[in-house]
Amino acid sequence: MKIVAFGGSNSRNSINKKLATYVSHLFENCEVEVLDLNDFAIPLFSVDLEKEIGQPLEAKDFLDKIATADVLVISMAENNSNYTAAFKSLFDWASRINVKVFQQKPMLLMATSPGARGGGNVLEIAKNAFPRYGADIKATFSLPSFNDNFDLEHNKISNPEFDNQIKEIVKNFVVKTFLA
């Protein structure tokens, strides 16, 4: 089984990428590929630009990576209660190529932030919108107060309550998705 994971941010030190990386490695006996949105840097989407340049290769490459996955582990970064501009533009370009961007792949959808809501706004937006774009969301998770609940030295959730919660979610995800 192959997991494709990414954080919905182009920050080089993305806390959402760190969370997605940690959680994707909780799945047993899996190949994990962690994507970096910086590898898919493209101009902001506009229909005028699309007419001028066509569809960027990076958007096609992103869709090709999604196609290789058996499971998607995505942690959405939140900017002003919504998607980051980097994710939104990549998503917009990709959806022009294939409206079912997530290609009906089983998805564990997450978010985190330094704040107490843990990216709750963007998580809710994505949870409601992504199914229209081919996401098969099996579970969601929000990690609040990232800096207090994640150990950067060991790259793992440090709060036992949240760590046990995500481990249970992963266990149930596997059972519900592959063993049911």
UniProtKB/TrEMBL annotation:
GO terms for cellular component: cytosol. GO terms for molecular function: FMN binding; oxidoreductase activity. InterPro entries: Flavoprotein-like_sf, FMN_Rdtase-like_dom, NAD(P)H-dep_reductase. Residues 1-132 form the NADPH-dependent FMN reductase-like domain. It holds the Pfam family FMN_red. It comes from the Bacteria. This is NAD(P)H-dependent FMN reductase. It comes from Flavobacterium saliperosum.
